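Hi R.,

Quick one: here's the K Homology domain-containing protein sequence you asked about.
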Amino acid sequence: RLSIPHGMMDWQDAPPSPSSYIVKKILRLEVPVDKYPNFNFVGRLLGPRGNSLKRVEASTGCRVYIRGKGSIKDPVKEDNLRGRPGYEHLNDPLHILVEAELPVNVVDTRLRQAQEIIEELLKPVDESQDYYKRQQLRELAMLNSSFREDSPHYSASLSPFGNSGMK
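And here's the predicted structure, written out as tokens:
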């Protein structure tokens, strides 16, 4: 039998593998408000009760922040907050910050996934062709307990999150 002196093989002191190092990366995505001033980008990103944004975060492991002018629902409150510490972003145009604090071997992939989903949501669509918005309205009706089974059914596959509810 091989005898190893106590403490010689203490795995807790072993250096972590390079793929397990946690890194923090932030990606900034501009919202095309200047090209489409009447399109509700914030509402489309948030979805009913913030669920669309929560799904992006859950499926990618990234945090998503809506920042800049128009990121606060109440314009009067936004004007009052502008210039205060922590609200410097209100002087910038509307934008999205995607933050990932993940292992180095997956951080770029997850940021790219979040970017693809968000860019899809930031594409303005004519309301009559906006299947994603219809899906959000259907979800809202279900959350408000006002959903009727005779409502038109839209496939979840029309959502940027795919069939499982997430991309």
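Residues 22-123 form a domain with the Ribosomal Protein S8; Chain: A, domain 1 fold (CATH 3.30.1370.10).

Cheers,
M.
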